[in-house]
Amino acid sequence: MNHASNERPSKGGMSRAEFLRLAMGAAVGLGLGPGLGAQPAPARMLTRRIPSSGEALPVIGVGTWQTFDAGPGEAERAPLREVLQVLFAAGGSVIDSSPMYGRSEEVAGDLLAGLGVHERAFVATKVWTRGREEGIRQMRRSMQLLRDERIELMQVHNLVDWRTQLRTLRTWKEEGRIRYLGVTHYTESAYDELEAVMRGEKLDFVQLNYALNDRAAEARLLPLAAERGIAVLVNQPFGGGGLLRGLAAQPLPDWAAEIGCESWAQVLLKFVLGHPAVTCVIPGTSRPRHMADNCRAGTGVLPDDSMRKRIVAWWEGRR
């Protein structure tokens, strides 16, 4: 079995219920505001290095598509605040958004400001438009909504007008407005173009879809990312949600315990993280308990190549 870099594995023996209770308790106790740092998380999250800088990045983050597109009311935002509290309490930091995600940037920005954790957050968002001036206008608006004058990662969403937008992103990186730049897509049909961009451009990050039932990225894109020194963010690790829903009623196989998994979410996330080219996985959720469960996948033992093949064989054999 392999481990992500720079963090010790979990000691194990903690039940899923105990972990969820402790993670939630740590988040509430921390408050992630005035009492920041008062209590440790029950298990620290593993990290992987960003190849272009060597910076360590926690392996589990949170996506905001649909889940953070909420109104201003406390009833709508309270669970999302808890999601972020749990993420930070577990040692996570990555929050991914986009202008196309409705109010998600605004909500994330408000919550981060309210919790006083902008300095701890690795905020990633995207430019999703055509034309240089419109791209600049949109990115400035994202910074306003996210309440951050410098964004950790700006990505060209779904490769829309990527040549124009990457030129601006390179200038912004040189000026210190962003720390990293990248491109994204979420479907196999775009892989030929995505591969061409990865081969022809100097990128810090690529974001793509990868899951147990959606492994096309293994053929060329993940090996290419490793070869080119590009960090990988994985979206749709639950196969768009359908994969996790389909497995939910089934008992876990015996081998799940060998990699410390106590839920299907953990199995699916650890499978993705077992690929050495993957830097961070960003499943979306609006439920604090699901966030805690996801974070648990970022601790302890990750599946090595042999275990990953065993998981794939199990998946293929049941269909």
From TrEMBL:
Pfam families assigned: Aldo_ket_red
Gene3D superfamilies: NADP-dependent oxidoreductase domain (3.20.20.100)
Segments forming domain NADP-dependent oxidoreductase: 60-308
Domain of life: Bacteria
Cited InterPro entries: NAD(P)_OxRdtase_dom_sf, NADP_OxRdtase_dom, TAT_signal
Name of the protein: Aldo/keto reductase
Source organism per UniProt: Noviherbaspirillum aridicola
Lineage, uppermost ranks: Bacteria, Pseudomonadati, Pseudomonadota, Betaproteobacteria, Burkholderiales
